[in-house]
Each structure stands twice: as C-alpha cells, then as structure tokens.
C-alpha cells in the first residue's frame, strides 16, 4: 500500500508538470487532499447562514407584509431549493478536485472561463464590503458602549461613513485578511468555530426576549402591513425567491469547497445538516426575535445589531456583538474571499496567486463604498435582484453543460491543456456557444431589474437567468452532446466517489 500511494502521488505530480503554465498553479491544480467531512461542509453553511447579513435579509421579509409563520415557510422553502442546487453544483468540482473557476473551463473554454470567474469575483467585491461593513457596525456599538466619548467621531462623515466607522471598517478588513492569509486550513478551522458560536448568541437573545415578554408576547401572525390572500401568496413566492438569490453567490462557487470533500456522500450529508436542518433553527430564532421586539420595544426591529445593543447588560452586549462579528467574518471569508482568490488567480495563474486574488477583492470592496448598497430593506432586495441577474445564467450554463452536454464526465487533464488539441479548447480557448447563451440571459435579467414595469418579477431574476442561460446553452450545444456520446476523452476521466 505505501508503494501504491507513492506511485499515485508521483503520477499526479507528473500530470501536474504537464499542465500548461498559462492555466495552472499550486492553488488551481487538482487537489490531492480531499479530506473534508460532512461536518466541515456543515460548518461552511453555518458560517453562511449565521451572519448579520442573513439575519437582515430574513428579517426584511416582514416589510413585505408577511406574518411570522409565513416568513418561516418562505425561509425553509428557499433553503431546500438551495440544498438541491448545492448538491448539483458540487459534483463536478468534487469529481475533478478543482475550484469553480477551473471547472468553468469545461463549458466556457480554457480561457473563456475567465469571463464567469471575473463576474463572480466582481460580485464578491460588493458582498465582501457589505459583510465587512455590517461587522464594523457591530464593533462600533461595542466601542461606544464602553467608550462613550468616541461618539464625537461619529458626527462628520466621508463618503457616507464616519471617522469611527472608517476605523472599525479598517479593523474588520485587516482581521479578515489575517485569517485568509494563513490559507485554507486556517479558514477551515475558523469556520468550524465561528458558525456554532453564533448559535449560542442567537438562542440566548431569543431566550432573553421570551424571558422578558413571555411566550404570549411572541406573535406568529405579526406583519408590518395588511395584505389580501392573493397578495400574501405572491409575497411568499417572492420571499422564497429572495432566499435563493441571497445564497446564490456562495452557491455558485460552492465547488471551491466541495473540491476538498472526501466524496459526494459526505457533501450531501453536510448540505442536508447545514442547510434545511440548520436553517430551520436559524429561521425559528429569527422569527422569535423579530416578532418579540414588537412587544418588548414597541416597534419591529429587523437589525440584529440594534436588538443586541438594547440588552441591558454591557458585558452581554459586548459578547453578543463580538460573536456576531466572528460569524460575519466567517461568511465573508468563505463566500467573498476564497471565491475571488481562485477566480482572479485563474485569469493569470503565474502572476496572481490565491492570496493575491483574495486581496484584489478586499481592496476593490472598499472602492465600492458598500455601506451605501445595503442600508434599507428595499435596497437589499434591489441589490439581490441585480446580483441574481448575473449569477443565475452562469449557474444554468455550468449545470447544463456538465449534466446535459458532458453527461456528468470531466476530462481533468484537458482542463489544463492550452493547445488546440485540448478537449476544452473550442475556438481559441473560448466556447462561443456558452458566451452566446450568457450575454442575452444576463441582459434580460438586468432589464427585468431596472425597468419599473417589470418590478414584480425582478425578485425572480436568478431563476429566470438560470433557466435562460441553461436552456439557451442546451439548445446551442445540442450537437456537441450527440458527438460527446461517441467521442472518447483524450485525458483522464474524473469518476464520482460515493
């Protein structure tokens, strides 16, 4: 057995040595360490779910006029869709052991994959900044609790952020960079702790509210406005779609983490516990907290930072907010640091490393002044609509190519072949059919998002984009599917491990 392992490692090293330098580096090459278990995947989703951004999005559904029990149903329905999609998008990356940007070469071409990679990387700019800003707000509240004199630094502002806000934002920015800089093992250890930690705070906050007002004060019929039955049904469908849109970013590049999974069985188990089961508890706690604030404070509070800050004990407030900060750092790293790190590295593997790619996103996020993007429930939904318009088509094309055109097979060696003989060379390294499917799909999604008359369907931009992108590509590449049934792979075929 030792000799077998040595031979396997040697053959893998030889294969990597043959890969084109224009397409590979140590971070992009197929991983030799697929050791993540279901718990690591579970922790990944815990970090995504248990964040201030997730809480704000869930709580904002009350502004749609939905009752508490309706919000709960929407959250669960949406997360079940996310679970299904996560299982689908994980398979190609786990089979090949490569990140999202590399697996996109199968559909877009070895160089054309830079198109979806850059799009996903640019989207991470916005989300990284948004999550950092939310964490900075929590830190600012902690500082003001213990150092009230710092309030003088909150009066003047520059680019929409006060001096104290800039200081807190900078601290959060640096803390996340430090964790990221130590690599994937450090990130894995961090999210294994950050996700579960916020459970304690959320449950404690819900318990404190119930203690203050009693179970009778928790209303599951509470809503911010009165709607007819038909309007309620439509808003519930809208809210369900927005849940999927919120998770569409980490969902698209879930392969960046699924590549490390031992097998698909472990990944599916992690998705099952990390999404519907985990999200059920998160949803119940969120509904209890938001509906309880109406009875306790006389108004419905959808901002978790504001709710925590109203707890009487300063130490409890500090612990709660610091834990939320840790959880938000967790989602920011896994969703908005790791993804662009691989994505931008894919554009120029020999010049942009994993670390450099992540830092590009971190710097770019500041330039977008993200605090101006996420300051109201309406703007939250508008932001999600626009992001969904880009992410949906990419998701649809990726899955249509892998499952319908390539029939769940990946030629790993050809993903790193920059010669015309490579299977994924297409035309000059670009697949015109994938690009032809992408452009109109994104265009239609943006039109839906920006045209006021289409506002009612804007929340479904991710679904519309995924259907258009996948459907168009399936039609344009229909002949390749027929040829793919008989044309053999030149390189090794990645096989699924259950």
From TrEMBL:
Membrane-topology descriptor: Multi-pass membrane protein
Fetch the CDD domains from UniProt. SLC-NCS1sbd_u1
Q: Which GO terms describe its molecular function?
A: nucleobase transmembrane transporter activity
Could you give one GO CC term from the UniProt record?
plasma membrane
Q: What are the UniProt keywords, alphabetically?
A: Membrane, Transmembrane, Transmembrane helix
Q: Which family does the record claim for this protein?
A: Belongs to the purine-cytosine permease (2.A.39) family.
User: What is the protein name given in its UniProt record?
Assistant: NCS1 family nucleobase:cation symporter-1
